[in-house]
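Supplementary Note 3. Input sequence used for the single-chain structure prediction.
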Amino acid sequence: MPQHEHDDPEREFDLKWADGAEHKEPSARARMLAARWRENPPGPQPFRADPGPVTPRRSSWVSTTVVLGSVAAIILLLGYAQFRAPF
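The predicted structure, written as discrete structure tokens, is reproduced below.
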């Protein structure tokens, strides 16, 4: 690195100076949304909009019963197959 880059503390970026700027440029997302909303403004929404209908989930007991029943059936099937196999 050249020597003059280390000796110039005035060139260091000052965050307080940047935060104190009168004009702040909006972020890219803010600019994109502003452009989109100029053409097609969003409709009014309540503060906490209703998420809509929720489909009822099956009970966890039903899932547990199905899994345990399947495991029991496989154990019985393997035991029967081993019982019927010739020695």
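The radius of gyration is 34 Å. The chain has a mean pLDDT of 79.
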